[in-house]
Amino acid sequence: MPARLVLASGKGSAYTAFMAEQKQTAEEIIDVLWALDPLADLPRAGWLLRGVAAPESVAEHCFGVAVVAALLVDALRAEGQTLDGEKVLRMALIHDAAESGTGDLPMPNKTPALRAALAEQEQNIVAKILPPAWAEHWDEAENGQSLEAQLVHAADKIQMMIKVLVYERRRGASLAEFWANPANFRDGGLPIARAIYRALCARAERAYPGEG
């Protein structure tokens, strides 16, 4: 039996310390989940501005990004590349964690001054609500320098463009502007991401706007 399980079934000061540690860890986990829960009820503002009724929430978006990211990890590993899949999933799941405190501010409203102020506020929120290791993953994703971060950035845009296609085909939304914007096709230098974008444009019967 593992030593910690033996300890947990015992008595004395070591047992008391173990139980206190378990309680603290449990409280910390609850605090993280409590802090992130507002994302489940926070609609993606960009869709609302374009008339999409009852759009996905930020939490649903993060789930979608995580799924895309996991599929990209598999694709890259099949090509012989080495990367940290667990880190990728952590980044994808919490890349919008700060929006639990700031809300989802759409891109057109972000002036340079607002971006700077928002970046500082997001750093403070993430440091407050996420464990240090997870906050480091968030920072890495924001900086976008590592292969894992580039993959998450690509997954973020891929998920968004898939929702564009879904909202157009299934809800009759008019979202042509998304297909015309090269910034929506960020691929992080990943050929598989570029291939996905090309395939999405083909399904949507839209021209691929170029390298993202």
Descriptors for this entry?
single chain, 212 residues, mainly alpha, Hypothetical protein af1432, 2 domains, 11 helices, 68% helix
CATH topology of the largest domain: Hypothetical protein af1432
- In CATH terms, the superfamily of the largest domain is Hypothetical protein af1432
Estimated radius of gyration:
20 Å
Largest sheet: none
Number of domains: 2
Strand content: under 5%
Summed over residues and divided by their number, the pLDDT gives a mean of 93
Helix content: 55-70%
Give the CA-based shape: globular
Order of helices and strands: HHHHHHHHHHH
The computed structural class is: mainly alpha
User: What are the segments in which pLDDT stays under 50 over at least 5 consecutive residues?
Assistant: none
